[in-house]
Amino acid sequence: MTNRNRILGISINSLSKNELLENIRNILESGKLHNTIFTINPEFIVWSTKDKNYKQILNKASFSVADGAGIIWALYFQQNKPKSILLHLPYAIYTLILLLSNSQKIKSGDIIKGVDLVSDICRLCSQTGKSIYLLGATHNVLEKTALNLKKLYPELNIAGLSSDIDIRVKDDLSIEYNEVKNQKIIEDINSSKADVLLVAFGHPKQEKWICENINNMQNIKIAIGVGGAFDFISGKVKRAPDILQNIHLEWLWRLIIQPWRWKRIYNAFFKYIYLVIKGNTDNFDKTN
Fold this sequence. Notes:
By secondary structure, the protein is of the alpha/beta class. It contains 13 helices and eleven strands. Helix 12 runs antiparallel to helix 13. The protein starts with a strand and ends with a strand. The relative contact order is 0.17.
């Protein structure tokens, strides 16, 4: 087992990217079924504070990894914050400046971005003869994603793809979808004999859907929620310039090119920081 830290009750694996990929390789070679990987970003944490079921789902994952500098910052802040509550805000500002300056002091683990993890897993599958199934997004995005992945990894076996389902979050925060269409997708995944399932419904839909359906998949060794990764891989959305990625300001780039996402960005930055500062020591622990 790997060490795990918690942010506001959400468990995060302390893994480097290489360690995670080695675990994935071992799972694929062993044939162990129904493992899950969730790439946790600040939006996940914020959503989990109002959705107890979502928090439980994230904490049941085989691996929950840090997708974003905000997760690394929160882990560092929680472990090192002053005892006096009066100093929490100035210390948060200080550590955020360290983060933006890319200081090695604040590095407490690898940032494992969903889009990069998809690429790494596809490379691993192409090397080991394992197959993947793409689920979510739009059909056009899926086709372009598959085409670009094959250009990068000609030996990659893309066993199937589907976008033929709409998922809605209900008022009680559970999800609903057409059961007939869902069953057809499960049957297609099973007939494809894919080893890895990449699900791009966005949070919390993708994690909840995986939790509800993974036990009905006969061959899936690993299911991963990949959020907007297909949009990036297909070229539908351009990634932030390297300079902004290096100083952890990708959220600012998304705000510039997609201003309608302002509420999500507000939650992932300002509300998240507020919740982490407000959190108490009971929200942090470390277990083996």
